[in-house]
Structure formats: C-alpha cells, structure tokens
Amino acid sequence: MAEIIRELISEKDVDDKIRELGEQISKDYEGKQVHLVGILKGASFFMCELAKRITVPVSIDFMSVSSYGGGTVSSGRVKIVKDLDDSLEGKNVVIVEDIIDSGRTLNYLEKVLRERGVESIRFCTLLDKPERRVVDLHVDYTGFRIPDEFVVGYGMDYDQKYRNLPYIGVVELQ
Ligand code: IMP
Ligand code: MG
C-alpha cells in the first residue's frame, strides 16, 4: 500500500504558532530562566524552534521514554529510556512534547519530575488530540487541537519516516 501525506497544518501556520507560544512563554517567565525538557525524538524539531522564539534565558535538556510492555492496550506505565543530563533542582521546567494523545506519558513524567526539587513545572505541546485523553492533565501551552487522526512531520514519525517534513500532515494509505 502506498502512503500519501495530506497536509493538515502548513509550514507557515506552524511557524507562526511557535512564534506565539514563544512570546507567551517569554511573558510568563519574565525575569526568570526557563529550562526546556524535550521528549525525544518527536519534540526535538519543535523544541529547537520554540527555544529560538523565547527571549528570557533558556537552558535545554532531553529525555527519552517508552511505554511499558507489548500488546495493543497500553498499560499506562512509561519507562525512562534516556534520563536527563542535568538536575532539575530549583528550575522552572517546561516539558515540551510533539503531541498529546492519551496523556499517559506526561501524566507519568509529571509525577516523576515533580519529585526532583523543581521550582515549577508546566507543559507545552505543539499538538493535542483531546478526544483521545484517558487521564486528567493540565496543559499550559497548546499549539493546535486536532481531530483523532495520525499525523506526521515536524518531528513526528510513521515507522520512523517523515520526521523531516517542515509541515504537519496526515498519513493516508492508498
Ligand atoms: P500519550 O502518552 O498517549 O499521550 O502519547 C503521546 C505520544 O504518542 C507522543 O509523544 C507521540 O510520540 C505518540 N503519538 C501520538 N499520536 C501520534 C500521532 O498522530 N503521530 C505521531 N506520534 C503520535
Ligand atoms: Mg513523543
């Protein structure tokens, strides 16, 4: 089956939105330093662009997580595959995600990272599929709310492909 990518959000719309998010974060953290924590690999493209739009001092770190166990039904548990390099002690942390689906990943990370002596912790996601949420989660910065469709581009993959697309698209199998 051939895969076709249908554009959902254009490169310009994504870039404009990231600029807005960066401006908002810069206002909210006036006089402070923001510590951006990106969730690999998906959030990496978004996080670098976002960091460029933030005008207060920024430090960055990355971590990699995966869902526990096989099967089609997620256990809701998440495993840290690559932990952060730096301590979170006393930092104003913003967790940066590409997309929130069930919310389980961020729900888990919030619990774990809060215990590391953070000054504050907030969530920023480029995309959100609210219909899919199974856990309660407060998201502070959201780029776009999208319908329940599988998207790629801007860091997000389908079978490790399409991360490099500069726009966001929906995978259609033909
Ligand atoms: P959650 O724990 O269910 O919220 O899962 C979020 C993670 O699932 C994201 O960080 C992505 O890695 C992945 N994901 C969810 N929906 C999509 C999608 O439409 N395209 C690509 N990855 C997705
Ligand atoms: Mg991800």
Ions, cofactors and other bound molecules: inosinic acid, magnesium ion
Give the SSE order as H and E letters.
EHEHEEEHEEEE
Largest sheet: 6 strands, mixed
Number of helical runs? Answer: 3
Please report the distance between the alpha carbons of the first and last residues: 6 Å
The beta-strand count equals 9
Widest beta sheet: strand line-up: 4-3-2-5-6-7
Q: Catalogue the unreliable spans.
A: none
Can you tell me the overall shape? globular
Proportion of helical residues: 10-25%
Structural class: alpha/beta
Average predicted local confidence, pLDDT: 94
% residues in beta strands: 25-35%
Please state the CA-atom Rg, rounded to the nearest Å: 16 Å
How does this model look, in words?
The protein has 3 helices and 9 strands. It is an alpha/beta fold. The protein has a 6-stranded mixed sheet with strand order 4-3-2-5-6-7. A 3-stranded antiparallel sheet has the order 1-9-8. The radius of gyration is 16 Å and the shape is globular. The model has no long low-confidence stretch (mean pLDDT 94). The structure holds inosinic acid (IMP) and magnesium ion. Inosinic acid (IMP) binds next to strand 5 and helix 3.
Provide a quick synopsis of the model.
Helix 1 crosses helix 2 (44-52).
Secondary structure blueprint with pairings:
Elements (H helix, E strand, L loop, with lengths): L2 E7 L1 H18 L5 E7 L3 H9 L5 E10 L10 E5 L9 E9 L3 H11 L5 E9 L12 E5 L5 E2 L15 E6 L1
Parallel strand pairs: 2-3, 2-5, 5-6, 6-7
Antiparallel strand pairs: 1-9, 3-4, 8-9
Helix pairs in contact: 1-2
